Amino acid sequence: MTDWPQGYGLRRYAEIDSTNEEARRLIAAGETGPVWLTALRQTAGRGRRGRAWETAGGNLAATLLLRPEKPQAEWAELSFVAAIAVADMTAMLAQGSRIALKWPNDVLADGKKLAGILLETGNGPKPALAIGIGINLAHHPEGMEFPATSLAASGAKVPSQDEALGLLATGFAGWYDVWDGQGFTAIRDAWLARAAGLGTRIRARLATEERLGMFEGIDERGALLLNEGQGRTSVLPAADIFFG
Predict the structure, then answer these.
(1) How far is the C-alpha of 66 from the C-alpha of 23, rounded, in Å?
(2) How many CB atoms lie within 10 A of CB 235?
(3) For the chain, what is the radius of gyration of the CA atoms?
(4) What pTM value is reported for the model?
(5) Cβ contacts of 22 within 8 Å, gap of 6 or more
(6) pLDDT digit string (tens) for 179-223?
(7) Domain 201-243 coded CATH 2.30.30.100
(8) For residues 206 and 236, what is the distance between their CA atoms, to the nearest angstrom?
(9) Could you tell me if 134 and 73 are in contact, meaning their C-beta atoms sit under 8 angstroms apart?
(10) Domain 9-192 carries which CATH code?
């Protein structure tokens, strides 16, 4: 494993239902981290809105459990911190691929989904955060509405799960320090520099409707700015977006 960031713990599991679920159980028992949890195999992994997330052998499933010192209202900003760290790590490994960030929390390789991020707050003696990260290292699902890929499919050398986690944990620790010291503005700028579809027309799927418009960026809290024309710019805190 690459150098491990100082102050971060690590727990390994051969098989588990979900590293995020384990983090929530640990938070309920009083754990506040920071500690990384990783499993060789997840039997009930999930993504946003309860979607199943397949963790085949050789892929990375990991969750960072931590309790930031900042107000809880700012914790959601860490999904952007995690996305930047994943993008940097995968760009290092897949140098022949175009790595970009898809709002709100996916990482793309050549326009296909390579990784996803899920933030959940756990309740316990002290609330804490579970930042779940799944990266398709060796395998990827087929037949998805938004096409998926893996490092293997991109032609990159596939790292071991331990090597990938070491790179990710080190990168996250560095960007966490930026967020902690400089605030979300610095993170927002770094995220936008890696953003997919910025300045292009997109389709945003909300719970009850779809909207079309120009992806103008994200605001100071990370919400999507959608220019729908005629001087109207909508601020969308949550949506699924599609390009083209």
Answers:
(1) 9
(2) 11
(3) 17
(4) 0.93
(5) 13, 16, 37, 63
(6) 999 999 999 999 999 999 999 999 999 999 999 999 999 999 999
(7) yes
(8) 9
(9) no
(10) 3.30.930.10
Report residue 227 as tokens: 């220019």
Joined tokens for residue 156: 């990159």
Domain residue limits, the chain: 9-192, 201-243
